[in-house]
Each structure stands twice: as structure tokens, then as C-alpha cells.
User: What shape does this take?
Amino acid sequence: MRQVFNINSVEKELLLNPGDTLLQTLRDNGYTEVKCGCSEGECGACLVLLEDMPVNSCQVFALSVKDKKITTLKGIGTIYHPHKIQKAFVEAGADQCGFCTPGMVIASYALLKKNPKPTKQEINEALDGNLCRCTGYVKIVEAVEKAATEIASKNV
Assistant: This one.
């Protein structure tokens, strides 16, 4: 079946099966920035913003969100126009293999929208649902701190 979704502020008609998750629907329709990690809602690789709230897209039926705003990593920034969070991840070396990076950036973006000056503890809590097997999280937390500082300095 075909259904219209609002993805990254663009209305787009996608092909899906009635029982598909949002993750399956996005991946099947070319949104490869949404990663498939565990399919159990444990790793955060498939994180997207749903009405500006981070959700594991593997745990949501696609048809249940057809009238809601969906934002993927490319809705935050692109390779040609990266968001300050994405730049901070690169500058801090927080994206070693890159598999977890989209979910980490989504979680960081949601945190900084809600709390532009988070403590290290608040950053750790915001990233708690995202697994990384490469970095040990130190550089990821540093990247979020760097992005928060950069964003705060532009808003002063």
C-alpha cells in the first residue's frame, strides 16, 4: 500500500505493508541514515524524532505515525550543510565506525533543543539508550558538550 508521510518537512508518499515498522518503511524507501541495529528498541541506531521526541523507529508501526512529523538525521543536517552537533562529532572524533552516529546525533539534538546547557550527567542520561561499540562514549560526550557550547555562544 502507499501512504503519505511528513519526513524531514517534506510530504512523501511511501510504499509499505500494513504491519511494517517505521524503521522498515524508512529503510525500504531509501532513508538509509536510519540504521537497523537490534530491532528490539535497545541500541538506538534507528532513532528518529517523532513530533520532536526521540523514538526507536523499530518499535513503532509506520501506519500509527502517518499524520505525525518524522525527522531523520538528514532533517537535522546534511553532508553539505551539517548541523553544529554533526560538526562537533567529527571534530571530537566521536564517529569512529559511524554506525551509531545517526542515533547519537538525534538523541543529542533532542537534548540540546530541550536543554541547551546540559551537565555531563544529563548528557549521559540523554544518550543512555544508544549503544556504541567503538568509542567508549568519552568522545561522544565531549562532542555534545562542544556542540552545546557552540550553540550557546551563537544564541547569546
Notes: The domain at 84-155 is CATH 1.10.150.120 (DNA polymerase; domain 1). The mean pLDDT is 95.
